[in-house]
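Justification of computing resources. Each target in the renewal requires a structure prediction run like the one illustrated here; the chain below, 78 residues long, is used simply to show the kind of job we budget for.
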Amino acid sequence: MPLQRTVIVGKITIEIETFNIDEIEIYIDNDLKYPGKETKWIFDEKSLGKHEIKAIGYRGERTCEDKIDVFMLNVGWR
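Resulting structure tokens:
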């Protein structure tokens, strides 16, 4: 049976492809994790279960948004 969800094991680098974007916000389960201008951000918090990753890009008054549902397993071993 094929997987029905993206599975992430360990930390993940979230990379946003942008064009003419002034600022980016990255949310995990509607909790703002990263506001800024960088297009790469590393998520390395303990996590187990289903989550939604959402990115919003801003250019003046305009916005664009994308999101994905994932299953994360990161127990924080270092």
